[in-house]
Amino acid sequence: MDLWESWCGKFAKVASLVRDLSQPCLSQPGIQLLSIGKMLKPEKWRAFSIVMERFWFPEGAQINYLGGIDPSIRAEVWEFLLGCYALSSTSEYRSQLRKLEGSKVMDMRKSYKKEVVKESTDGSTEASVNDNEKTENQNDSSNNDTDTSHGHRRGSSNEEASVRSELRSEDEGMHSFRIDKNADLVIESSYNNNRSASIHSEIEVVHPDSVEQLSHSGSTVEIVDGLRISDVPEVPSAKENPSRGGTVTEDRMSEWLWTLHRIVVDVVRTDTHLEFYEDPRNLGRMSDILAVYAWVDPATGYCQGMSDLVSPFVVLFEDNADAFWCFEMLIRRTRANFQMEGPTGVMDQLQTLWHILQLTDKEMFSHISRIGAESLHCVRMLLVLFEGVIFDEALRMWEMMWAADFNASVAETLENDCLEPLVIQLPRQSEAEIGDPKIDDGQRNSTTSEPTSRSSDRMSKSGPLSKSTILIMNRHKIMKEARSIDDMIKIFNDKLLAIRVRRCIRTAMKLRKNTYTSCFYQNQVIKIKNHTVPDTESNHEPDSEEIQSHDENFSQKFMPWSCPLKNDY
Amino acid sequence: MGAYRAEDDYDYLFKVVLTGDSGVGKSNLLSRFTRNDFSNDSRATIGVEFATRSIQCDDKIVKAQIWDTAGQERYRAITSAYYRGAVGALLVYDVTRHVTFENVERWLKELRDHTDANIVIMLVGNKADLRHLRAISTEDAKGFAERENTFFMETSALEALNVENAFTEVLTEIYRVVSKKALEAGDDPTTALPKGQTINVGGRDDISAVKKPGCCSA
């Protein structure tokens, strides 16, 4: 038995909540498809799927592949991991659901269009189109060199239909952007005066390259019409947010256009290293999904960082609706990071992160505290969940984190409940809130505008864990090279941290186990102290032998990288 | 210019922040100044990023610690924390996008709310290379800068136009204020202030006394 196996064995013992049942066992209520270190391979998944077709899995079925998922089945498995579908759903049920979702998006748009027409001062699409021309003309005058697209744009809707990116819906007066090299909305300057026009306008995206030509040679503008954003998708009326329910106000429209603008600005600079995004249609798809999301969740809207999060789904799913629902499920977990009033979720995660570090690696914690770097240098990493580090690695990291959290959130373990207080300095959840929101009882949750921050808190826990793991894994570098907050920021911004995904996640799970234990003991202390608010100075002190040993010899005893591991890739 | 010198070899350390709407080119201004680099597809800045470069003012080496902040409004809770201790700021807008100029006022307020009253601010109209797309005239921006008592310059990070000048002017101005103040106080600022500590630019009078309208490209 090599060291790797021996370590795996140890880990399996320690993580008693995680059982390796390679064959799904239907007689047990807690069905699990999991393996600690292995990758989920297509054969196994297929076998599992066959079982899924024939049986109705009980609640609590799990899928925990901490070794990642074979790329060929990634899209399919992600839908389950993210909670789009419950494992207990049948394939028939899922396909029905999928159909419904597709048509729902279409319905949403249709009824929105009605609303727009109703509210529009002119009251007719025709009038709006005229307005639209006016808008364009205004732009023509202010942007002389970019107007070559207009004729083409107006007359080309049919031939371009095939490249329009939409969420499985028919295009009736869809909107698209035209942007220049600045990724700018050309209609921007006049949108305030042309509200209804804007709603019905076609805004096209000019391929970024074209602008380059434009600026340097001043010659013809190459317009790439493929990139479009279908504008103003509609909100499901039942779930309609009050702020969207009223009349189409000027403010609302200009705000919406500003949102679309910001989306485009970021989309054209997201994952530009991927060949995939050299095709403007794919950029259009990304914009589309973000725009729909921003529309259905106006309380969150579009926030920078979301384009990084949606990008993998655009790459992975051919169907925009599938990509959208997965993205939505992800945002549900991370919504607190993107709120209008500020990324409070990130702040909380940072606190959690430092607390974990304090518990697990005191030496590094004090080093970082000493140089005053315990602030916000890792915001990006927490926000976009490592996306942009290395694309493939990020995906692996994501699925491993989801797998890890899937276990925790669905199983409603004590561990899970205990981790909540670890998100310290937050108001404690009331008893009523403790009940875990199930992964939707087999249905995709369509309540997209419903706040789900408590589940997101719970489900994003592997974020700070993985993050602290990354810190710990790079402790040598940090201790040696980070002599000031400047160095620390540099280390983060310049992506100088080594991130070995599988090792990181495994360690994070280990950390979770340990922080869970310490949290448990802390809770005991807190109870004894009559619910004293946890004080970071005193309460992190170990209260058991286990924690003491963990603190004293953490790196030797608990850090798996202290023993040589088999290279995972 | 004392650029690219050893990092610890400096007489003054000035913290400068880059603010302004998203997509106006803050990150590229920074990379142009610190690395002489421009990237057409740099991704959106989330939170803050950071770079340094040293320049020479008189016989002193001034190290600029430049903080590049996220442009989106809702990140201000995070970014404004980084304004603390800043002695200079480049408030950037995009000369081709009017709305980014309209928002300058809000950014200015944000800056003044979170920084020392004596901070040296320069209004920077970036993307000046896109002449045919210009939406803000130099005169308008200059007028605004005069009213708001800030410096002003138009730049192009793409063409490396005025980027060096913009940063240098802000840093030199801070240096002037600081050394003048130190002179008045009879101190040698080099020894009076420990290395690595950000310098406060002192009283408002100092700045207005030496402030002059910035040059501009147009």
From TrEMBL, chain A:
InterPro entries per record: Rab-GAP-TBC_dom (IPR000195), Rab-GAP_TBC_sf (IPR035969)
SUPFAM superfamilies in UniProt: Ypt/Rab-GAP domain of gyp1p
Domain Rab-GAP TBC: 68-405
The protein, known as: Rab-GAP TBC domain-containing protein
Biased composition (Basic and acidic residues): 161-175
Polar residues: bias regions: 444-454
SMART domains: TBC
PROSITE patterns: TBC_RABGAP
Domain of life the protein comes from: Eukaryota
Renumbered residue ranges of the record's region Disordered: 115-175, 434-464
GO terms assigned for molecular function: GTPase activator activity
From TrEMBL, chain B:
Topology term for the membrane: Lipid-anchor
SMART domains: RAB (SM00175), RAN (SM00176), RAS (SM00173), RHO (SM00174)
Record CDD domains: Rab11_like
GO cellular component: endomembrane system
PROSITE patterns: RAB (PS51419), RAS (PS51421), RHO (PS51420)
Keywords, alphabetical: GTP-binding, Lipoprotein, Membrane, Nucleotide-binding, Prenylation, Protein transport, Transport
Gene Ontology molecular function, alphabetical: GTP binding; GTPase activity
Amino-acid biosynthesis is among the record's keywords: no
Intracellular or extracellular location(s): Endomembrane system
InterPro entries according to UniProt: P-loop_NTPase, Rab_GTPases_membrane_traffic, Small_GTP-bd, Small_GTPase
Family the UniProt entry places it in: Belongs to the small GTPase superfamily. Rab family.
NCBIfam families to which the protein is assigned, alphabetical: small_GTP
PANTHER family: DRAB11-RELATED (PTHR47979)
Name this protein carries in UniProt: Ras-related protein RABA1f
Lineage, opening ranks: Eukaryota, Viridiplantae, Streptophyta, Embryophyta, Tracheophyta
